[in-house]
């Protein structure tokens, strides 16, 4: 008889525990404890064999009844708890669809990209196509072939980031310090055709970063090679570019200068876009802004490109992209370009 009492006690305990199980995980524990493989009710059922023969049928029936009732109560409770958890989750995750949306701010082109594209279209009108040369250059293309030998003092103008491993033929590699090495590449690829290209690209100099200079910046180089090209063509091209980019009433001033890869060499200025020549902080009270270095391609450089200087001539020019855009848009600090501050970038 003790077995029957024990079974009823367990039955009552199981129902009480079930009522106290408030989560699905508490329910699982409950199921393990009573109905699982080693659960207490399961163990009761296994004891049937050890009972006096006459008790076995009644006990067996009762164990099964209890088991089924508990199973039914468990299923019902599980369903109830699941529903409760679901509705709590739905309430927690509810979205108030009546709230106004947050605006998505679309991106746009970086100021430098805008400036470059404007320059491409200006030079396209004059028949220049874009020619791209690599950022990692061989020393020979960046210097020697441009008439800047190892001992040449002009090398001081281009403080260089060197690349550790050497390139073809053991030549040292570097991050180009200017876009001029692309001139040699364009000539060697295009010979014996006449050439009219612009060479845009990023340049790198091992320099102190200041309000006016970054160690990475864009340049735009130009190269024209043909028969009978003269300084007049160069000056006309610079004037046309200056007026299309800076405004139709710009004056252009040409000064003589020196670059190893051009002869003669010049520098071009425009009247200050801010004070129109009166003198202000932007032009350092000179009335003029320097816009480009240029010149007639040095005969040695033409030859290095494969063109016979007795038959061919050419002009070249080069200028920075960020600084002119600074003047045009009134940007006071070159570091703002790549500082990634959206308050700056979104203005353009
Ligand atoms: N490569 C020069 C520099 O980085 C700029 C330059 C000057 C380019 C004169 C030219 C040129 O093509 O003719 O300062």
This entry's quaternary arrangement is: single chain
Strand content: 15-25%
Strands of the widest sheet, in order across it, are: 1-5-6-10-9-8-7
In whole angstroms, the N-to-C terminal distance is 92 Å
Count of individual helical segments: 11
Number of strands: 10
Please give the structural blueprint.
Blueprint: H1 2-20, H2 24-34, H3 40-46, H4 56-92, H5 111-125, E1 129-130, E2 136-138, H6 139-142, E3 162-163, E4 173-175, H7 181-190, E5 195-204, E6 216-226, H8 231-246, E7 252-259, E8 262-271, E9 288-297, H9 299-304, E10 313-320, H10 322-329, H11 342-345
Parallel strand pairs: 1-5
Antiparallel strand pairs: 2-4, 3-4, 5-6, 6-10, 7-8, 8-9, 9-10
Helix pairs in contact: 1-4, 3-4
The protein binds 3,4-dihydroxyphenylalanine.
